[in-house]
């Protein structure tokens, strides 16, 4: 099985609050963690996680005095090459396709 290149990690919101959950996108670093599974990190390198082939997540501290919170969900994402292109210009709403 090939390694996933990116995941979206969803962390719980503030307990007792109505804040939305936090979502962080992490990408494969090319290294393996203590369990032998791939290590993923966000663009800043602060959020680091080892993710198994079953989607199990082990958060890894990226510096001292951290106690990383475990996400509630890890969603595989398509690689950036496979991602849908994002429209950069608004789509005109006055044009309708004609049936032939």
Detailed description of the structure:
- By secondary structure, the protein is mainly β.
- The chain has a domain of 65 residues.
- 0% of the residues lie in helices and 34% in strands.
- It contains no helices and six strands.
- The chain has a six-stranded antiparallel beta sheet, with no helix packed on it.
- The radius of gyration is 18 Å and the shape is globular.
- The N and C termini lie far apart (44 Å).
- 10% of the residues are buried.
- About 16% of the residues have low confidence.
Average pLDDT for all residues: 79
Q: What is the oligomeric state here?
A: single chain
The percent of residues in helical segments reads under 10%
Biggest sheet descriptor:
6 strands, antiparallel
Residue stretches low in confidence (pLDDT < 50, at least 5 long) are 82-97
Topology at a glance:
Layout: E1 6-11, E2 22-32, E3 38-41, E4 48-51, E5 57-60, E6 73-77
Antiparallel strand pairs: 1-2, 1-6, 2-3, 3-4, 4-5
